[in-house]
Specification:
The chain has 10 helices and 16 strands. By secondary structure, the protein is an alpha/beta fold. Helix 8 packs parallel to helix 9 (458-467). The longest helix is centred in the N-terminal third of the chain and has 143 residues, at 2-144. It starts with a helix and ends in a 22-residue tail after the last helix. Mean pLDDT is 82; it is low at 345-358 and 393-402.
Length: 507
Amino acid sequence: MARRKSLAGQLLSAYQQRQKAKEAEQKRQQQEELRRARAAEQDRQRRERAEARAAGEQARAWEQARKAAEKEQADRARKAEQVVRDLERRQAERERAAARRLKAEERAARETEKAARARAVEALRLDAEQRTRHALDRLEQLETILHRRATGLHTYRLPAEAAFADDGSDGLLAVLDRALAQVDYPEGLHGGEFRLAFIPETRELRLERDFPGQDVVPTAAGYRYRASPAPGTVVPQPRKQAETKALYQALVARMALRAIDETFAVAPPALVDVVVFNGHVRSKDKATGKPIRPCLVSLRSTREAFDDLVLDEPELDPVACLHHLNAIVSQHPYDLEPVRPVVTFDLGKYKLAPEVDVVAGLDSRPDLVTINPIEFEHLIRRLFEEIGLKAWVTQASRDDGVDAVATNEDPIIGGLCIIQAKRTKNAVPAEAVRALAGVMHDKAAAKGILVTTGWFGKTSQDFAHRTGRMELIDGRGLKALLLEHLGIDALIGLPKVPPGWEARDLT
């Protein structure tokens, strides 16, 4: 029994030992598992710590990178800001420099403008002074033109006498014309165009001269500078119109006296006793715009009467002096109020042929077609003299298309008349009538007369009617005038009776 208890004890003990071993194994396994768990935990913790360390390091690296990037960005921003500040500073410096330059330029411009205004004002003042001096100089020329007569003209007298002895009136006039053309006048006051004619039978020298126009008298007494409107201007100080007109009237009188004095000085006393002077002025008719040439002074003076004058006397009144010489003087020369010349015809325009008494040598019933041309022209001259005109026959050569000239001294309808004489058996062509109109215009004639032994066509008659200043005298009209005024019962030997005529018109 003890042995069986022991076996059971042993079994129990073995069981207990197995249980204990099992428990120890379990405990050991548990411990091992715990150890492994602790090791795993430690490993995990180590990994976590490593990962944490790595993450921390990476975070630190990232942070460092971030900080470096931020620093770099900040550095770049600071540099950019510095560049901007530098640019702004430079721009500001440039703007300040530009402003300083602008101010300097504006100041210089103001100074330049001020200086320019000062120069302009000074130039205007000088201009006013110069214009005033010019007006005063012109006034002095007007007032002294008579005292500044040409000298030494008497030296032409002997050559003029010699020229007259050699070539007659043409030679004399050539010398006198050359002498007077060389007379010096102030600018703008020259004597103008002039013409001469010599009448040896009356020892009379005729002079026609143009005066300067009214604009030669300065209408301004002076000039002054006026400051407004800026930069100022030069304004005239008008001369009173009455004074201007008086100055021109005195100038015309002085120039007339000077022209006559110089003409007497150059003309030989042995040939010339009288000077006839007509003074004209060329202008425009304000009413029509056409050119006009009114006569302002006309007189006839002997050498003796003119030599009695003291032209250099400062107190001499030139207008009164002309009246003393019985001159015809315009009362209003500035207004171009004309006077009637003492001589209305300038013989110097034409070369006149010696007069021939053709009437005394004609048959009782002359045939106008058969007499020679010279006799026909003189017959026409005699006819118009009997009618009441003063007529002359021109020389055959270079007569400018003028066969005879005549003047009508009627103060209302008088004037120069151009006469052409056509001795023909046919109709006068219309071109001849138009040519006469051209000659009239060239000679400034008041009337033109074309006389013929033939007849005129309708074209010629219409043209003459339109001009209003031409008269056409055909053969039968001429025949009637000769019978009426000269008592000559002439024949016209035409080969046929012209249109509109009758046979008795020829015989």
